[in-house]
Amino acid sequence: MPEDVPRDPFADDPDDPSSAMGGLDDAEPLTAAERDEAITDLADVEVFRSLLEPQGVLGLVLDCPECGEQHFFDWDLLRGNLRQMIEQGRPQVHEPAFHPDPADYVTWEYARGYVDGVIDTEERR
Fold first, then answer.
1. Where is the composition biased (Basic and acidic residues) (predicted)?
2. Secondary structure of residue 10 in the 3-state scheme
3. How far apart are CA 22 and CA 5, in angstroms?
């Protein structure tokens, strides 16, 4: 190994702490119902974006069930993740937004309510 490449300090260690993370291939493929849900979510994201982006909304904030924190996703990252889930059965690896301004993002529920309000308004005309 060249000297300028750092050596993995846990190489061949049976107690490697990263072993608990599992490999990328450990993910189960999506079920038909999960795939249908991802397709529906992608369609929703497209509608959310078309109505909210002109209002200055950069994307959605989602609560992470694994870490309990909020994660901010811009529209392109959301679309990319959903498309990859649909095509390959797992989301792409990504970096979270760096110091996002929470005022630029809305929750899924807010976006859904906004779209429902726009539809109701259009139907009343």
1. 1-10
2. coil
3. 24
